[in-house]
Amino acid sequence: MPRKEIGPFFVTSLQILEPDGSWDETLEPDLSGDQLLRLYRSMLLGRQADQRMLKLQRQGRLGTFAPSTGHEAAHCGPVLAMTERDWFVGAYRELGARLMRGESLENALLLYNGFEEGNRSEAPNTTPVSIIVGAQYLHAVGIAYAMRYRGEKNAAAVVFGGDGSTSEGDFHEALNFAGVWKVPVVFVVQNNQWAISVPLRLQTASDTLAQKAIAYGIGGIQVDGNDALAMYQATREALDRAYSGEGATLIEAVTYRTTMHTTADDPTRYRSQEEVAQWEARDPLVRMRRYLETKGLLDDQQAQALDEAVQAEVERAVQAFEARTGFPPDVPFDHVFGTRHAEIEEQRALFLESVRWEQIAREHDEPGDLAPREVGHA
Amino acid sequence: MPRKEIGPFFVTSLQILEPDGSWDETLEPDLSGDQLLRLYRSMLLGRQADQRMLKLQRQGRLGTFAPSTGHEAAHCGPVLAMTERDWFVGAYRELGARLMRGESLENALLLYNGFEEGNRSEAPNTTPVSIIVGAQYLHAVGIAYAMRYRGEKNAAAVVFGGDGSTSEGDFHEALNFAGVWKVPVVFVVQNNQWAISVPLRLQTASDTLAQKAIAYGIGGIQVDGNDALAMYQATREALDRAYSGEGATLIEAVTYRTTMHTTADDPTRYRSQEEVAQWEARDPLVRMRRYLETKGLLDDQQAQALDEAVQAEVERAVQAFEARTGFPPDVPFDHVFGTRHAEIEEQRALFLESVRWEQIAREHDEPGDLAPREVGHA
Amino acid sequence: MPKMNLVSAVNLALDQEMAQDDSVVVLGQDVGVNGGVFRATVDLYQKYGRQRAIDTPLAESGILGTSIGMALAGLRPVCEMQFSGFSYLMAGQLEGHASRYRQRSMSAFSVPLVIRMPYGGGVRALEHHSESREATYAHFPGTKVVIPSGPRNARALLVASIRDPDPVVFMEPTRNYRAFKEEVPLEEEVLPLGKAQVVQEGTELTLISWGAMLRPSLAAAEQVYQRRGASIEVIDLLTIAPLDSDTLADSVRKTGRCVVVQEAPRGFSVSSEIIARLNEKVFLYLEAPVKRVTHFDVVTPYFGREQLFLPTPLRIARALEETLDF
Amino acid sequence: MPKMNLVSAVNLALDQEMAQDDSVVVLGQDVGVNGGVFRATVDLYQKYGRQRAIDTPLAESGILGTSIGMALAGLRPVCEMQFSGFSYLMAGQLEGHASRYRQRSMSAFSVPLVIRMPYGGGVRALEHHSESREATYAHFPGTKVVIPSGPRNARALLVASIRDPDPVVFMEPTRNYRAFKEEVPLEEEVLPLGKAQVVQEGTELTLISWGAMLRPSLAAAEQVYQRRGASIEVIDLLTIAPLDSDTLADSVRKTGRCVVVQEAPRGFSVSSEIIARLNEKVFLYLEAPVKRVTHFDVVTPYFGREQLFLPTPLRIARALEETLDF
Ligand SMILES: Cc1ncc(C[n+]2csc(CCOP(=O)(O)OP(=O)(O)O)c2C)c(N)n1
Ligand SMILES: Cc1ncc(C[n+]2csc(CCOP(=O)(O)OP(=O)(O)O)c2C)c(N)n1
Ligand SMILES: [Mg+2]
Ligand SMILES: [Mg+2]
Predict the structure, then answer these.
(1) Is the distance from the beta carbon of residue A336 to the nearest atom of ligand 1 less than 6 Å?
(2) B58 and B52 in contact (C-beta within 8 Å)?
(3) Inter-residue contact C38 to C6 (CB < 8 Å)
(4) Which subunits have 3 or more CB–CB pairs within 8 Å of chain C?
(5) What is the mean pLDDT of chain D?
(6) Which residues of chain C have pLDDT under 50?
(7) Largest CA distance in chain C
(8) Ligand 1 contacts CB of residue A92 (under 6 A)
């Protein structure tokens, strides 16, 4: 072998919609008007819900959450390509996608107000918010293994994460298992350039995240993550590969979070307003709307009606959320195990006793201190 | 960007010595006769020590260990390229390399007889055997960081592991940190085709291990790991890159363990005798010896003398090891912390009391049951 | 009833559960072709194929993480950590996901899986192969920790663990893998999780242990009985978490004295919790401090010294006598 | 003496140690430019540069693993786990290497490093951000675990931890980061590791707590004093492991009664070990069972319910009264 080159290795890149709304017709996916409008509506709902949540949070009516403004194409595009048979394995910054999968905004609000009840989702094959960076990739690989084992046809797992998550050992182990097992899984890495304050160049010395696929013998593609059509198309192709037994694909969605990491973060500490502005000019919603307009699928009036409808939907959810009651304090004791244990029940009794004391004390000493609604609704 | 290719990416491969002992003169490294003989002698010592240890183990005079027969070129070649300034961060299958670094065989025997005293090494900048697969890569990156931070010149860390170790999250995190930090570190992965019973194709779907470098923006090279000259040369180049601030290199050494994983393993359960025979025909020692013979550096008589000298050295170490005494039972209490603590000392007293009881009981009830030498030398 | 050792009993449980429920799969390093480094999964690959006896890449977090995914999607994975000493690499997946999925989703999802792992000393093994750290996992809420002591209860507890709706850390005492045989029925036998067992009744002292410590405990009880006729009640904990403190308390209420024997280091351990529970439940019945016989709070020494650090019948017997004489 | 909160006190300790010893470096996620998500490392990047205030990739095992390497090569890394809830990802490096290197090499190598991590509830945070799992790390031999309760001892203990020759897990109660200020001397102040502190003397009962639980404990002691004049000795543990059981035992020998307050779940926890040690050392002095006020053995609920699960002055006061009345 003396001294030789091994290679060449390649990955692919894809963009269909330009920032100005023009597009490459040879690449344009074959989607119906309904599908396209569903996609746009989902992105819009994600955006409006996100911004409403930010207000609620600032008013102290919601806890900490991770805003998703800017990411809508990156996570709604893939969901359009998925069916209910596919599993959606999300992280924590895919609000629009979750709503598109069938989770309710009311539940999302409940979740970010600190109640597990918000995770009781109606959405099929959809896992709850997963905060531990990188862990969820492995779950998706296991799910995909189970799907193949059960002989499920036209079904795959699609899992989401961020650029920072590619540094975790679990990301590596997941892609490696997926490669060896050749299971139907699609990894969507939303490369939004930042992991809190850490820029991509301090996250990895690799030129692209897509090329990490080469280390695992799986497919890799870098996609304009603000281009909903390209995200749809890349996921479509990855799913088709997965369905036909060709294994896993890593999709790098190049995008940007135009706002803070979470509501506890101050992004002005680590990045410039110019950078943000540059990316705002590439807004995924604007681009998609221009596309729909050019295609004659949405005019100004329809756009405004849609805006209002979505806003009304958000308001209904906020109202429903704020009207929710019924949060028994001892619920956690019901979900430690699926079986009953004397030790746990003994502690439940202790706990309920202490809740009662606190209530009595409150009534006697500090009337009106906590909202009267419900014990547990702090 | 529409749909494009990103790439091409390459890694390199290297072989200098052919299995028959012929070589590529354009690639032949510029090594003195003394250096070449040192390399060969180290490989031979590693081999003979290994085989002697196997006998001792089979006789019940040594505990479990991981034989290194077949790996000698893969780990001695790199050490020849290193100086004392460089750190050697080993795993558990680099006996020849450790001896070459200055560890004593007597200590190695002590270690595998269950005494930490065996890790009290005289070898400079050499870490003890590290069993947790993959963990040591990170230590090397941290060491390299410290070296650069201190402004040490012409110094790098060289860390060893196996093909199986590339699946661990720690491997990934180490290569990624090394890429971002651009620190002077060389990763030597001894790809011996097996991780216990798991063959490489079930370990990763990547065609080579070297190409994993592409995921981290570091150098990657696949080397014939049974070719000591190529291993020397690849490490030399990687060290030069490291010394000059160009960062990390991943060296995949393609080799084979021709014997069992550890003395507790039965390789006939999972691989064929033909496969083993094929690799035995590529024995790194034979190849190196042929090279030295052709170069006129070693004739039959010298070879025999060397064999005998090495064998005598091994025997001396075995005898010294077996004569060792002085293993106070409570040593572990001295090395929990570098500071004294009442809780630990209280337990030491309890412990020593129980050791005394056991001793008295033994003397009374079961005289001669344990070797009288030393409490603690079970 | 055939006689078999603990490894074979584990294998029997796996084999029978796989035979009757195709959602049961085993996975881990070397569990397939090789049948496991201790042969606990031997022949499963040959019988059930490589899709159900899965040789995984070398990555503990990957093994548990993918098992969680399998469990979410309806399988019942039994994964193996080759040694418990390497299981800390999956602690993130265990604490963060396996043990939380039920509560997080209010039981919409559950993660029925078993993490098998050999543990414990006494077999002259290399570094990291001799520890006993059941307390680490017992402290994670939502996680069950089970430790059999012999072939028969190993089989019956493993079956229960596989059928359990939640994650179970199933720790197998390496030292007892081949140390002795017991009769194990081929017919189904299941022991409930969360229940300790009184293996020898007595009136004067309660001796609590688990795993490989049961046998030296029984030997010590016998010695003390021979020496002075003391009637010692011996309890095999079997499930570490959730702890069956009622059985322990009932016994100590009767005997008034107690000794706990564990292989693990002393600090912040299972014996600590047992003592705390007895303090809470039977304080007024205690006629002597609860004594413990344990490893020490040192970094587990290599095997040259390990026997000196492990509880022996002699050390246990002395603790029994001191407690009886208190 | 300037008044400062706990975060600023941590920052002061880091700053001063970095100023006087160039082997001290800080590393972790967002610890550089951003100054840490809690601002504990603020300005260190600006003062000492990116080689000493290192923004790492997002990988906890990587952070500790490279810190171990730095320590082996002579640096004194102070690494940060952004939240203790993610620290299990580095448990393998901690149990397997940081805590073992000294024993493995018979002190030829040591690993002087600090692992800082915010922990604990009460701040309405997301999942994984509110746990208190000091027992997990306290159970690993060779690992020190330190928990300050306020600004002044945080500073003095962190300095001691940085100078300590061994790995120290330094857990900072998030809830106290900005809750109150104390005077903290700018001159050097060091508190010894391994020593508990009697923060209020008393004769009738010993109240033991640490971290964020000290303040509600003091409040409860005050309530009970107001109500019935009971004289309660309050101890701040400060170092969890190795445990200073002598100070605890001396106090209980005097008072005869004890209550332990912890934020962590009850089972297999630090309170368990404290009770076990008191049982061993002062059994005959105990006039009542040691009572504990703790979280419960449930998976930590989201913040909507968290206040109900955390010890409050009221719960503590009731435990004090029940123990006094026993
Ligand atoms: C294992 C782990 N470590 C640290 C954190 C704290 N944390 C939450 S999000 C985040 C950054 C994630 O960055 P990235 O993966 O790029 O996703 P993004 O938030 O940008 O969408 C960090 C460090 C965490 N949640 N999990
Ligand atoms: C983290 C961890 N998991 C499991 C093991 C058990 N084990 C020891 S060596 C080995 C295989 C290692 O294979 P490879 O990396 O290829 O190195 P080789 O032994 O072939 O030299 C395994 C699974 C371990 N030591 N560490
Ligand atoms: Mg990001
Ligand atoms: Mg190998």
Answers:
(1) no
(2) no
(3) no
(4) A, B, D
(5) 98
(6) none
(7) 59
(8) no
* Pairing status of strand C239-241 against strand C144-146: antiparallel
Give the pLDDT confidence score for residue B167 in this predicted structure. 98
Ligand 2 touching residue B253 (CB < 6 A): no
Q: What's the confidence (pLDDT) of residue D203?
A: 98
Interface pTM (ipTM) of the complex? 0.98
Q: What six digits make up the tokens of B214?
A: 């592409």
The one-letter amino acid at A267: P
Amino acid type, B2: P
* Phi-psi map region of D28: left, alpha, beta (phi>0 left; psi -120 to 50 alpha): left
Q: Which of A58, A120, A270, A356 is catalytic?
A: A270
Which amino acid, D300?
T
Distance from CA of D57 to the nearest CA of A (A): 5
> CB-based burial of residue C128 (10 Å sphere; 0-12 exposed, 13-18 middle, 19+ buried)?
middle
With CB atoms and an 8 Å threshold, state whether B196 touches C34: yes
Q: What's the mean per-residue pLDDT of chain A? A: 95
Return the best residue to mutate from C60, C82, C115, C174 for the ligand 2 pocket (most ligand atoms within 8 A of CB). C82
E strands present in chain D = 3-4, 24-28, 53-55, 76-80, 114-119, 144-146, 168-173, 182-183, 197-200, 205-209, 232-236, 239-241, 258-261, 291-293
How far apart (Å, rounded) are the C-alpha atoms in residues D30 and D27?
9
Environment class of A369 (CB within 10 Å of its CB; exposed 0-12, middle 13-18, buried 19+): exposed
Query: From the CA of D308, how far away is ligand 2's center (Å)?
Result: 46
Specify the pLDDT at position B149. 98
Partner D, chain C 231-290, Cβ-Cβ below 8 Å: 241-243, 265, 267-273, 275-276, 279-280, 283, 286, 288-290
Q: Cβ–Cβ of A167/D57 closer than 8 Å?
A: yes
DSSP of D86-148, one letter per residue? GGGGGHHHIIIIITTHHHHTTTSS----EEEEEE-SSS-PPTTSS---HHHHHTSTT-EEE--
D279 vs C273, C290, C297: nearest CB: C290
Q: Strand runs (DSSP E) across chain C, as ranges?
A: 3-4, 24-28, 53-55, 76-80, 114-119, 144-146, 168-173, 182-183, 197-200, 205-209, 232-236, 239-241, 258-261, 291-293
Q: Name the token pair of A20.
A: 């100005």
* Residues forming beta bridges with residue C170, ordered by sequence position: C116, C146
Neighbours of chain B (3+ CB pairs under 8 A): A, C, D
Which residue among D25, D65, D105 places its CB closest to the CB of B170? D65
3-state secondary structure at position C24:
strand
Between CA B156 and CA D163 the distance in angstroms is 27
Residue with tokens 């681009």: A287
Domains identified in chain D and CATH numbers: 3-183 (3.40.50.970), 197-325 (3.40.50.920)
- Bridge partner residues of A13 (DSSP): A222, B4
Task: Name the token pair of D149.
Answer: 């309760």
How far is the C-alpha of B281 from the C-alpha of B276, rounded, in Å?
Answer: 9
Q: How many CB atoms lie within 10 A of CB C33?
A: 17
pLDDT at A374: 36
List the structure tokens of A48. 């409006």
- Percentage of chain B beyond pLDDT 70 is 96
Q: Which two tokens stand for residue A80?
A: 């359009």
* Among candidates D57, D61, D108 on the partner chain, residue whose Cβ is nearest the Cβ of B180: D57
Taking Cα atoms as reference points, which of C86, C72, C13, C74 lies closest to residue C44? C13
Tokens 């294998």 found at: C11
Q: In what order do the strands lie in the sheet with C24-28?
A: C53-55, C24-28, C76-80, C114-119, C168-173, C144-146, C239-241
Length of chain A: 378
Compute how many other C-beta atoms are within 10 angstroms of the C-beta atom of residue B320.
15
CB-CB contact of B175 with B216 (8 Å): yes
DSSP C95: I
